Amino acid sequence: MLRLHVVSVHIPGATGFGPSVHLSVCFRGTSRRTRVVPEERSPTWNEELVWSLDECPLSPTDTLSLRLQHWDHPLPRGDLGGTTVSLDQLVANPSLPMACRDVLLLDHWDKPTGCTITFRCYYTPCGKAGNATVTPQGWVALLGALETLQSSGRAPVERKEDFQVRVRIIQARQLQGNDIRPVVKVLIGKRHFRTRSQTGNNPYFNEVFCQNFHETPEQLVAQPIRIQVLRSQNLCTKAVIGTFELDIGTVYSAPGRTLSWQWLSLQHPQHHDSHSRGYLQVSLAVRRAGERVQEQEVPSGDEDVKSNLLRPPPCATTLQIRVYCAQDLPQVEPARPCLGVRRGSGKVAVRVSFAGRTLCTRVMLPSANPEWNEVFFFPLRLPPICEEIQLDLLRGSCRSKVLGTATIHLSQIYQDPEELQGGTPGFLPCFGPAFLPLYGPRPDCARQQLPPRCQWGLCGVFYSATMVPEGPDLLGFELGIGHDSSATPLSPPVFDGNLYHHLPWHGDKPVVAVTSSWEDNCRRWDTLNLLRTLCRRLERNTAELRRCRGDTAKDVGVKLLWELEQDCKQALAQLEAQPTPLTALDEQLRNSRRLLLRHLWNVAKEAPVKAEKYDWDTLVSGAERWLRRVAALAVEPQAGVPNLVLWLLQGQRRVGCAHVPVTDVTFSPIGPDACGRLCGKMQTIFLGSGTVRAQVRVRLWLCRVCDSGALPQLLEGSLQFHTETYENQTRLLGKWGPWKLLGRPPFSDGMGREGLPPGKIQPPKGWRWEGPWNVELQPREMLDTGSVVCEMLQELNGNQIQRSCSNGTTSDTDPGAVSEDEPWQSECFWPRPFRPKPPGSVLGGALCRRRRWHRGLVLAQPTAVAPLFLLQGVPDTEDTPKEDNPAVALLEPWGSQPSLEQPLPFILCTFPCPSRFQLRCYLFRALDLTPGISKTSIATAAHVSIMDRSQRSRVVRGVLDPLWEQTLLLHPVLLFGNPQGVREDPPAVVVEVFDQAGEGAGVFLGRCVCTPEVWLDLGHREPPWLQPHPLRGPWGPAGDLVAAFELLLEPEDGTLAVLTPPPLRKDVLGIPLGIRPRLQRVALEVLAWGLRGLRGAVREPRLELQWEDQTLSTPVIKDFASNPNFPTTTFLLTLALPEEEQLVPPIRLRVWDRGNRKLEVLVGQGCVRGLGQYRCRTPGLEQPPHQEQPPGPGDTGTGSYTVVSMPDEPLSLLAIFSLWKGLCSHLLTRAWARIAQILLSCLGKKGNGDKDMEEEEEEVDWWSKFYTALEDKGEIPWGTNRDRLKIYGCELEAVPEFQGLQDFCQTFPLHKPGGPPMPGQDPEPVGEFKGLFCIYPLPEEPRVPPSPQHFQQLPPSKPQDCLVRVYIVRAFDLSPCDVTGLSDPYVRVSLGKRTLGQRDQYVPNTLEPVFGRMFEMTATIPLEKDLKVTLLDRDRLPPDQEIGSTSIDLENRLLSNHRAHCGLPTLHHTAGPAAWRDQLCPSRTLELVAVTRGLPTPEFSPDGLAVTFNHRTFLLRHFESGPPTFRHPGPPRERLALHVLNLCPFVPEHLETRSLYNSAQPGLEQGKLQMWVDIFPSNLGPPGPPVNIDPRKAERYELRCVVWNVRDTDLGDTNLLGQRMSDIYVTGWLDGLPEQRQHTDIHYRSQDGHGAFNWRFLFPFEFLAAEKLCVIGRREHVWSLDKTVLKVPPKLILQVWDNDKFKADDLLGVLELDLTKLPYPALTPRLCRGMPWEHRSVPWPWCRTPALAPSSINLFRMRRARGWWPCTMQEDGAQRLSGKLELSLELLTAEEAEERPVGKGREEPNNYPTLPVPRRSKSSFLWLQSPLRLLRYGIRWRYCGWAGLALVAVLLLFLMHIFFPSSMTVKMVDQLRVLHPAGAEHPKMEHPPGRGAMPA
Predict the structure, then answer these.
(1) Residues forming beta bridges with residue 1395, ordered by sequence position
(2) Is there a contact between 76 and 111 (Cβ–Cβ < 8 Å)?
(3) Rounded distance between C-alpha atoms, residue 647 and residue 1668, angstroms
(4) Closest Cα to residue 838, out of 470, 466, 497?
(5) More confident residue, 489 or 428
(6) Given a cut of 70, is residue 1747 above it in pLDDT?
(7) CB neighbour list of residue 1187: distance below 8 Å, 6 or more residues apart
(8) What is the pLDDT of residue 934?
(9) CA angle 690-1040-138, nearest 5°?
């Protein structure tokens, strides 16, 4: 695991008003981002980013890329610089953090930007259960348990956590529709919520909804959040106004997991691409257990909607996953995994999981190759939040058993262009079609096979196997890939004489060869390995270039560019030679790689041409950027071949395994650069679990069989092929013979199964015998280590030391020698499988024996293929059947009766002679060991093992930090192969620490794996450095081992003896001076103040402190119940410690209690680590007093001084104001004299107004300071005559400048004695120790007198009686407890045994209660030191549900040097609401501070206008520009003393915000509480009066709105004559008070859109001036017991309507006026043109410029306003002007309204002003009431004349037609004849028969 702790950055040009910034960190193509913080000069994060390394350990080529960016700004405009940091230091020393301070950031052109960053890196090289992890030395290690997976058969489930999602609906704007009552419906996960219905197009809601989740983070981020705005009147049809959808992952990935005060653009539910249907302001937050919730900043003023608009997810798409088929499914296995047992397949299915969603295929019938061909769809948001796609192979009818698991990482199949940078294109996620290996408890895999296959050969040469389990069972190793595997011959383990066992392979190393058929991925693997080689070489050269300077840097830079050019050229040639890509991912990766490599090739090719002018210093940052881009593309998710699996075999069982990535061991004929990094290299692999473990050194190759011809030449030894069989004999009646007793065959294999005799064994096809059958002589066990150590000691010390070696036997023969005795080997009688006879038995007493016959094999004809792969078949021959597999043939269970078959040959790699090395292990000490049982001390010994050698250190008793100071010599260490290879890949040194309390090996405490320094040439040897190595115990980290190791090659000439031997001390070899750390005399001063909170019946406790080898014990506390402090508080220890901080042991704390039986019992224990924070200066070696700058309260070294830092020349407000006046006077002489005059006048008016307002607000109450601090954010200019209240957004203990209020003494937790807690659990606390430490060096000369102690002038340690006042102001963001989504909170305060707070003092139906309560109680500190404040929800029936609680340590506040018991105010008042409430006046407090801090007493002048404090003089005029303007000022002496006190780092008058937590959901914040605490010791006198914080009552106001006229309204009706008209009336009400709706009379028949009313509306309401909100209390339901208090903005809503009698009235216009931000009215209707939110312009003398005055007015200040305001209507998604209203608004208090009563409308009393009857046109009436007036005024007579004449003409024509029809017809015929003369064509006319028809 890699952890990056981001501390802070420095931005020199930051102003504090720019956009926010965040840090993006990229490691191996995976990016992590910090939270977004405001852009300041030095923003601080203190945030940790974590990368899981899985199976890829940290290597020296890895780097971290850091880039500082502006939030929500695209690159490169938002780039502030970046850098790339190499992690080679972490690889070299994994236990040491890599700290980087002020690292310079560079831009894209490698130019410094001026920004710097400070961070720390930590590396934990540990693995997971059942998986392989490569350690920093390049090994593959397995740590964890495998048995759990085998027994359960299920994949590990990720831990679920507690989350809370909060959605706050604030307000809406510009909603579509007219006369609507909107309601918001919210869906969180699967639960629906709904707000109250409001009125208007701009409603205000301010409602909070919460939903709790108990899921994994991947499941949580996929849950939806759907927000809908509906019409409450019409919930069935066309009710939806707009919707907005997002997932919780959008909020989860936001900075601080919060989206505060964001505007949502509502869209049509069916047409998402349409225009916006309104805007909704919300706040979204996700709370996670264990994470602190950041305080949300309320935006100041009216923010622009579009500038704070929440954009939808960056890219919403769908992830499509196709599951085709599977092949070679694993077989069903019994409960216990026995090898060789096979059964049929069961029903199988595939489960796909991504982003919290899980889909499963259908269940297929039993088949080895099932086919599904199913498609799954998952929603995906880019960039992705979830990283892994998991596929599980399930078996069983219930699909309960997981056979295998595969994972696809999205970061490997998707590339973001921003992460690649440099113009390299990215691509969307794509993968396959390709098969995925599925890994489970067994090394089986199911695969989906599409590409063609080829034969692959796997070769493994086993050099050594050490630390193997003991026992009679034979051991071996099995190497496999997929279902194909092969095993080494089984061997009995051999004891090394100390503690461990090994396999006696000696010079004949077993070789394993496996052939299998897989798809041909050579093209992919070659390209991948070429890119990885490029990365490693580029990283190595970059690290070398970083260390070089001058001409050397030029040479290294030229080398870097030349190698980069060659590597790019080679990789490009491989990419160009690739055939057509098989999948889309292949094509995308190929294109991206080609573009990147061509770019790098061009850069590297052109750079050397400019070598003389090239800036080699900037090449480092460029190379790091290139490395980051190449590493992002050096991935291959479509490997297609499973990992190699190495199993440890113990008899017939597999007991441990390790995985090796297949791409790391692949061989390529292209060249060594295309091979895997571990191909053919020695690697150390740890495998096993629990007590079963093994360490194997092995070389691995994987290549195509056709390319394996050169493999034998790569081996260091010679290959030998043999066939073996064992001859068995049984003794019967004293004679040996093949009697077949107990079914023993005459000939068998190595496991005792019946086999063929030598005469019937035939060589394999294509092979022939080499020589006759021979009997093998059994090798003798290797020598014990103890004998060699004895011989070494005698040689070094001239036989002066006689040391008894109790372990092992002594022999002078070569370990590799072979015994010449009888070649028979005895075996046990009863077990049928072969088991050797114990070594202590006599051969003559054995009943069974056997011997081994073997015969060599050679190829009949030479081939181009490696011979070892021909034993299992080649592509041209028939494949070996599965029954011939060595893993099956050698490991078949005894119960079966197989037919006699030809034995399988085995392969050996023979080495002529080994190299002799000597290991020197320098053990210094162990730190922070954790015993497994309840013990205060242990007997510790360390066992060191390398290869087949091991030794034990001396036993150190009585401490948990044992100091050995011993050198262990392990000689000889026999290593086969080239010594140069040993230097490149040295063997691992394993150190295990045990508690040797009893006999045997002892109790295992921890283990570490170390890498020795190898020296082949002793002439260049350098002494090693002691380094801490982390120990891993049974339950995790178990401490550190401080040691050094070196491996020396022993030349044949014996020059190793020339080296200086280690010094001999007390019969053990010590550590040489060049390696042993330098010691320094230090003093440890201990302030032991007392013990707190001890559990149980503790009577007389004492503290025992142990550091190094010295122990300090405090006096016993006689009466712990009455005084838990120690009678003596200061102690001193002197001892010698190493100068290096990392080698210093921690301080151990133990608390003992003397019970009734006078026996001491261990009550609790603790450990103090990180002692560097307690180092301080040496007393007596400081500066002279006149130059001394005393340390502050945060200096833990003294505890008796404080920093007094003051400005040299404090500027007063008068000086600043005079500068501004001078500037304006200078402007008066310029051309802009007019502008300067206006500015100066505005400044003067504003200053006078603010001054009056300050004086008015100052004497109101405490809430004036509170609301002023909220508006000013606590930042008030220096020198203002105003009380300042500091509001902290966190607990007072969390404020950095107050050091947790533990500057006097810190609190150290004490835990229950015993072993370490279980994983994931915290140790059980049993109490606390309050104290402090101070460490400083002492002079080396013993004659120097001891220095004075630091802890002086301490307060009395006796308990103090104190008066405690707890002020509870308010709470917010509470979690709801009732079904209504609200709570009824009340406060309960507990201190000791006293509890205050009643159930009836609750605030009903709210999540933001304002308490304003003060609780006063007395307490004896420290007996009653923990103050607990609890918020409970009142229910109808008790018990009440707890909302949350918080605890405060009052003792820390009382003892802190920051004076936290009572905050310092800004001004000194003698009376009034802000009267001085402390016990001591400011001057007396200043004198007390000087006395307790060891400073001179302050000297005041007689008039109190000057004071000398800490050798500095302060004048009152430095702080006050003139006489005090506030009321009740104190005397000058006290005011000056208070100003000086405020310059000290003391706690000011404050309000802290504390987080509330509930035990039902630990770690999940339930809300925040704002409060403060005052503590007054009784010995200092009575305190001042308490502060009155009673909540403000809402003031009653009355709004009088007179509607005078209406102009230009829409005409909604049409009369009988087609004329447009409207019957206009106006309604109005205050928002939130619809029951006060009032309306005017009706102006009938308005045909020009004008209306006159002269009508008065009266709206009484309650208003909170500080919050600018109206208070409305109403019962939600009839059955509600309490009123729900709502707070809404004071908004007047006026609507213009058209009255209709037979249908619903028509809305003509709407006007909404916020009384606190009232738009300026127009003087005339003609000027009323724009919308209310548009800016206006006022005429200046020479131009038109926006007005200097604000665009709105506050009616609560102006009190009156009159003019014209525009009405609007929603139409086609936009607002248009639909009329104008002339209004007069007047706001009166309740008292003023009683003095000046008026009536509604035009009722009496009709005053202020008098409203006359409006003058309307005579046509304005209701026609039903005056039908006669309708004839006069409803008809327009000027049009009636013409209508009458037309009617008379029509009547005359009708009468003529009736009385004179013939004349009318003749005239018409004549006209026709005229139109159509004779002979002309005319249309035929048909006349009906009858009268009037003319003849033809």
Answers:
(1) 1390
(2) no
(3) 74
(4) 470
(5) 489
(6) no
(7) none
(8) 58
(9) 65
pLDDT digits (tens, 9 = 90+) for 133-168: 322 222 222 222 222 222 333 333 457 888 999 999
Residue 1827 has pLDDT above 80, yes or no: no
Question: How many helices and strands, by DSSP H and E, does the chain display?
Answer: 25, 89
220/214 Cα distance (integer angstroms): 9
pLDDT in tens, 1175-1194: 887 654 444 333 333 334 44
- How many Å separate Cα 386 from the centre of its chain? 13
How far is Cα 206 from Cα 1617, in angstroms, rounded to an integer? Answer: 51
Q: Which residue has the higher pLDDT, 188 or 290?
A: 188
- pLDDT-derived band at 315 (thresholds 50, 70, 90) equals low
The rounded distance, in Å, linking the Cα atoms of 148 and 152 is: 6
Question: Between 601 and 608, where is the model more confident?
Answer: 601
For residue 26, what are the β-bridge partners? 31, 65
Quick count: other Cβ atoms within 10 Å of Cβ 1176? 17
pLDDT at 1096: 79
Residue 417's pLDDT is what?
A: 60
Concatenated DSSP letters for 772-783?
EEEEPPPBPPPP
Q: Which residue has the tokens 């969390």?
A: 1294
For residues 1552 and 1463, is the Cβ–Cβ distance under 8 A? no
Q: Comparing 1796 with 1675, which gets the higher pLDDT?
A: 1796
Q: Are 994 and 943 in contact (CB under 8 A)?
A: yes
Give, to the nearest 10 degrees, the angle between helix 1482-1492 and helix 1532-1543: 40
The answer to whether 1632 and 1650 are in contact (CB under 8 A) is no
Locate 779 and state its tokens.
């090798």
Q: Are 1552 and 1244 in contact (CB under 8 A)?
A: no
- DSSP states along 1372-1432: ESPPP-STTS-B-EEEEEEETTEEE--TTS---SBSS-EEEEEEEEEEEETTT-EEEEEEE
Write the DSSP assignment of 1835-1886 as a string of letters.
Answer: S-HHHHHHHHHHHHHHHHHHHHHHH-HHHHHHHHHHHHHHHS-TTS------
**Can you tell me the distance from the alpha carbon of 812 to that of 787, in angstroms, rounded to the nearest whole number?**
9
Check residue 278 and report its DSSP letter: -
DSSP class per residue in 96-126: S-EEEEEEEEE-TTS-EEEEEEEEEEEE---
Q: Which residues contact 197 (CB under 8 A, 6 or more apart)?
A: 181, 182, 183, 232
Residues near 688 by beta carbon (within 8 Å), at least 6 away in sequence: 142, 469, 648, 655, 656, 694
Residue for token pair 């969603």: 357
Cα torsion through 637, 641, 642, 647, rounded to 10: -140
986: buried, middle or exposed (CB in 10 Å: 19+, 13-18, 0-12)?
buried
| Residues 1482/1538, Cβ–Cβ less than 8 Å | yes
C-alpha dist (Å) from residue 1216 to 1212, 1227, 1772: 7, 17, 54
User: Could you give the CA distance from residue 308 to residue 297 in angstroms, rounded to a whole number?
Assistant: 14
Which residues does residue 374 pair with via DSSP β-bridges, in sequence order? Answer: 323
